[in-house]
Design a protein that fits this description.
A: alpha+beta; 2 domains; 7 helices; about 50% helix; B: mainly alpha; two-stranded antiparallel sheet; about 65% helix
């Protein structure tokens, strides 16, 4: 039985590589094992790639949130900017509003507690602190927002407002439920 | 014994892959998405990705973005290396520099983009085979990447099957409601918005598209057993990308470069050329 398994393996792509280029073969086996482990524990370790593409079951949500940016009194949509700049700006603003809604609490503490409980509480707290965003960094974030928007729009900016808008779908159309101001900047 | 690649085929593939990288990087330059154009960002997200943690704990992202000269140097190195590898695909040194520099770009940009934009990984891994001078080793890594592409799509389909999302009739409409809120609000009369609204109104149609995508993704398993259907799988991959654009507004230019590895590059220029063969990889 062992011989059958060994013969099967030696006829596979990996088996042939191990037979003829041992170093590369073992490297590939290690890579495949690590990818398998990452898959099993659903851990993301670049370049071990998890490409779920909306594979988690999505249930209807009562409300949806979007972030809205006004520059010099004009609403700035993501589509008003070049593709990557728009994605970069709005994903950053979305995360800012997420942190603001959760009073700065990030994802790291529960993740560290779940998978890194073998580390001492002090080490876990240090790790969490270094990887998180802190409320005292808000002024630096606002200064960056001004710099980045001036760079991307290539014009002087005198005011920026960032709002969180909450919507619900009524008859398949989004309807505004709530608007909250997150950032108000005047130059 | 089966032929692998000739030097000429390697050069052709190298030109296509690195040409793709050059276009992707120039697009990023023109969209202000290179590290030196990010204006020293302060809010980042390392997600649950342990490689990103390592970079963060070594304070690499903050160091590179904090010094304009360092950020600009990284951007210039990654772009120049891609350009030189495109012009001289047989010189492995450019490919090696590119692979190392793009890893730094990938982790730093994705950290500060606050969005784990996975398709960018195409720019990271597609250049790897060209970092090897030995032709058999180059051939091995091209085959490895082919398996990697098959794995990407097949695992995306299997995840949907195992998690049961393909049986969730609401799945596609939930994706649209979640991801297309901005478009539905700001451009309700745009053709894409009208299409999304039609999909929201016709749940059976949107669910059927989701099931179709799942079936197409799972079909990549075939490639693990035979190469006979590679051209069909390439067309399937491109169809999926077109479908993702129409149904989710998502276009992964950086990932499509990996799909190119499903094309039969080692059958091009075969007239009068002696292919470099490797008994190691017979039967590939």
């Amino acid at each position: 039985m062992f011989n059958a398994g060994s013969s099967f393996f030696s006829n596979t792509f990996l088996g042939r590589v191990v037979r003829t280029d041992r170093r590369v073969g073992y490297f590939l086996i290690a890579f495949a094992l690590l990818q398998g482990c990452a898959q099993l524990f659903r851990a993301e370790v670049t370049p071990f790639f998890l490409y779920g593409m909306y594979s988690e079951v999505l249930d209807p949500l009562p409300t949806y949130v979007r972030t809205v940016c006004h520059v010099n009194g004009q609403q700035l949509e993501q589509t008003d900017l070049p593709r990557y700049a728009g994605e970069f700006l709005y994903s950053t603003l979305d995360r800012y509003q997420f942190l603001e809604a959760n009073e700065g609490a990030d994802l790291f503490a529960p993740f560290l507690d779940q998978y890194f409980s073998w580390l001492s509480p002090g080490t876990r707290a240090d790790l969490e602190y270094q990887m998180s965003f802190h409320p005292n960094e808000k002024p630096a974030f606002e200064r960056w927002l001004l710099r980045y928007l001036e760079h991307v729009l290539d014009e002087p900016i005198t005011s920026i407002q960032i709002d969180r808008e909450t919507y619900e779908y009524k008859e398949l159309r989004p309807k505004l439920v709530l608007r909250e101001r997150l950032i108000e900047l005047q130059k | 014994m089966t032929a692998l690649f000739t030097e000429k085929q390697r050069q052709l593939l190298g030109r296509v892959i690195f040409g793709w990288f050059v276009v992707a990087l120039l697009w990023r330059w023109s969209d202000s998405a290179m590290i030196s154009q990010l204006e020293q960002p302060v809010l980042g997200n390392v997600y649950k990705d342990l490689t990103f943690w390592l970079f963060e704990l070594a304070r690499i992202p903050a160091f590179v973005t904090g010094q304009y000269a360092v950020a600009l140097l990284l951007d210039l190195v990654v772009t120049t290396a891609a350009l030189l590898a495109f012009l001289q695909p047989s010189k492995v040194v450019y490919a090696r520099i590119y692979c190392l520099a793009i890893l730094f770009y990938f982790v730093i940009f994705t950290t500060y983009a606050n969005y784990h934009y996975r398709p960018i990984i195409g720019l990271l891994v597609a250049g790897l085979p060209f970092a090897f001078r030995s032709m058999p080793r180059f051939g091995t890594f091209v085959q490895v990447l082919r398996y990697y592409v098959l794995f990407l799509y097949a695992s995306a389909g299997l995840y949907k099957v195992m998690r049961g999302s393909w049986l969730n009739v609401d799945q596609m409409t939930m994706i649209i409601e979640k991801t297309q809120l901005d478009l539905l609000l700001t451009q309700p009369d745009n053709w894409h918005s009208l299409f999304y609204t039609w999909l929201l109104n016709n749940e059976w149609a949107s669910w059927s598209l989701f099931v179709l995508a799942t079936v197409l993704e799972v079909s990549f398993i075939i490639g693990f057993f035979t190469k006979r259907w590679d051209l069909g799988l390439f067309c399937t991959a491109i169809s999926l990308h077109i479908g993702f654009y129409f149904t989710m507004g998502f276009f992964a230019f950086e990932l499509i470069v990996l799909d190119l590895l499903l094309l039969p590059w080692n059958r091009m220029y075969t007239k009068g050329q002696l292919p470099i063969t490797s008994p190691a990889l017979s039967g590939l």
